[in-house]
Automatic annotation (TrEMBL):
Sections of the chain in a coiled coil: none
Protein name, UniProt field: DUF305 domain-containing protein
UniProt cross-references to Pfam families, sorted A to Z: DUF305 (PF03713)
Signal peptide: 1-20
Superkingdom field: Bacteria
Alphabetized UniProt keyword annotations: Signal
InterPro entries listed in its UniProt record: DUF305_CopM-like (IPR005183), Ferritin-like (IPR012347)
Positions of the DUF305 domain: 46-186
Amino acid sequence: MRTGPVVLLLFLLLAAGCSAAPAQSAPAVPVAATASVVPSGFNGTDVAWLQLVIPMEDKALRLLDLAAERGSEPAVRRLAGQVRDSHRAELLDLHRILDRTGLPATNVHEGHDMPGMVTTDRFTLISSTTGPRFDSHFLQALKAHLAQTAHISRGEAQSGANAGTKALARSIASARGTELGELDQLSP
């Protein structure tokens, strides 16, 4: 295996802040789960991006579903619904590409706390609030998620090898920019 894709994979995972325990000083990177098998037509960046974005989107969907129903402001509920719908469509595309790699849909980041990830603790905190406080917590979490997925998607678009994966990454990065602009209009 060439070292370039492995080094880039490590960089992406480290840039994403992937760590098994946030208190550790050095991130624990599950390299064996991604770098040992890179399917033909893909590189380590493609695989790492797919294996990171899919669980991030899955977890964000739970929060988006909740906010579409419980947001105190109609504009918050509307934005949550729109973002949720686009995330669901993107998630289908992400899974289709992952299926083409032949790699399992295993979440190699299970239990990791990464920037932009809607963790169980954060979801619990947000779901326990109501009214404007709910909206505020939701918008903060959504902003972190959108910014991080835009960041790592730009990295995939620049350094990935698979044309379809890079095109989806560009599309997601662009969508996140639009969604962040809409979110900024709602944030105090």
